[in-house]
């Protein structure tokens, strides 16, 4: 397994510089780690060169940012060594938000500003390096969002802005009002849609590196729980042996081979999960093998 640090990448022409792998915090609350282990996890990521941490206000029922914030409070020196990403715009029905009567989206200026304030307080920091709109809002007012972004940036609370799960047209609409630096999307060998619907075409056209959630399809890719997963798993296992790496490493290498320069998000309670993803940067995946995995996923040769 390669010991070379994870490389860094600037998301866009005037965007932030992030580690090419991102540590995901979605399940941090489920791991039920004591404070010392949370700190050790952050340090272990940093040792691998993973400096970017992905949050959302709703993670863990609005608790994960505070768990991470406790680690930063105990070790304030860590803040200047990392980049913090968070997402907002979903109103989740949860006991921690009793005023939310129905799950809905809210991209109003008031909600965005209140969400950022709450995230900064929970994380114990003065700024976010990147804020993303978590999901497309059918009632999205692009001008109102742009106004909120401008206000938050002027106040020094957020450095850069982007979106998550947006279609190309939705991205283009908001980007026409305020320059976005990334679209965080789902993509994996079991979810090829962004390679076919114009999402990654747009990312490459605009030079905005996309962030990728669920790069292992939530683990389905490795567990082989259904026919399509087992089909891909067979080819993945065979090629992993050829490259002398794990199946997880090869699945990440397959994503990294794409010219849109994706940044996979790794959310694992195991250090090995990050090590295996980091090892993907040492794999020089041949074009024919990339297409062998594509064909395994689609169930047919390319036309």
Provide the fold topology.
Layout: E1 8-10, E2 17-19, E3 22-24, H1 28-31, H2 35-48, E4 52-54, H3 59-62, H4 64-74, E5 83-88, E6 90-91, E7 104-105, H5 109-123, E8 130-133, H6 142-154, E9 161-164, H7 168-175, E10 183-186, H8 193-196, H9 199-206, E11 211-213, H10 220-223, H11 227-243, H12 247-256, E12 263-266, H13 271-278, H14 287-298
Parallel strand pairs: 3-4, 3-12, 4-5, 5-8, 8-9, 9-10, 10-11, 11-12
Antiparallel strand pairs: 1-2, 6-7
Summarize the structure in words.
By secondary structure, the protein is α/β, with parallel strands linked by helices. The protein has a domain at 19-181: TIM Barrel, CATH 3.20.20.100. It has helices spanning 28-31, 35-48, 59-62, 64-74, 109-123, 142-154, 168-175, 193-196, 199-206, 220-223, 227-243, 247-256, 271-278, 287-298, and strands at residues 8-10, 17-19, 22-24, 52-54, 83-88, 90-91, 104-105, 130-133, 161-164, 183-186, 211-213, 263-266. An 8-stranded parallel barrel has the order 3-4-5-8-9-10-11-12. Helix 6 (142-154) links the parallel strand 8 and strand 9 (161-164). Helix 2 (35-48) packs across helix 4. The longest helix has 17 residues, at 227-243. The protein is globular, with a radius of gyration of 19 Å. Its EC number is 1.-.-.-. GO terms for molecular function: oxidoreductase activity. Keywords: Oxidoreductase. This is Aldo/keto reductase family oxidoreductase. Residues 20-292 form the NADP-dependent oxidoreductase domain.
């Amino acid at each position: 397994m390669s010991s070379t640090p994870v490389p860094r990448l600037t998301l866009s022409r005037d965007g932030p510089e992030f580690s090419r792998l991102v540590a995901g915090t979605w399940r941090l609350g489920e791991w039920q780690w004591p404070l010392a282990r949370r700190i050790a996890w952050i340090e272990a990521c940093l040792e691998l060169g993973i400096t970017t941490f992905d949050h959302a206000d709703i993670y863990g029922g609005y608790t994960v940012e505070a768990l991470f914030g406790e680690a930063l409070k105990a070790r304030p020196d860590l803040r200047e060594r990392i980049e913090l990403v968070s997402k907002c715009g979903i109103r989740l029905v949860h006991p921690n938000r009793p005023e939310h009567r129905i799950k809905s989206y809210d991209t109003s200026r008031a909600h965005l500003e209140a969400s950022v304030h709450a995230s900064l307080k929970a994380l114990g920091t003065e700024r976010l390096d990147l804020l993303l709109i978590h999901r497309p809002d059918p009632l999205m007012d692009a001008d109102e969002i742009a106004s909120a972004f401008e206000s938050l940036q002027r106040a020094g609370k957020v450095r850069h802005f982007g979106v998550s799960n947006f279609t190309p047209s939705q991205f283009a609409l908001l980007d026409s009002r305020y320059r976005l630096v990334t679209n965080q999307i789902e993509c994996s060998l079991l979810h090829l849609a962004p390679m076919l619907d114009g999402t990654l075409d747009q990312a490459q056209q605009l030079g905005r590196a996309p962030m990728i959630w669920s790069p292992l399809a939530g683990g389905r890719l490795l567990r082989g729980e259904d026919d399509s997963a087992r089909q891909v798993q067979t080819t993945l296992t065979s090629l992993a042996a050829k490259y002398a790496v794990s199946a997880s490493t090869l699945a990440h290498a397959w994503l990294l081979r794409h010219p849109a320069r994706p940044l996979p998000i790794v959310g694992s309670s195991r250090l090995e999960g990050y090590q295996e993803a980091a090892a993907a940067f040492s794999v020089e995946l041949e074009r024919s093998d990339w297409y062998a995995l594509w064909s395994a996923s689609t169930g047919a040769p390319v036309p």
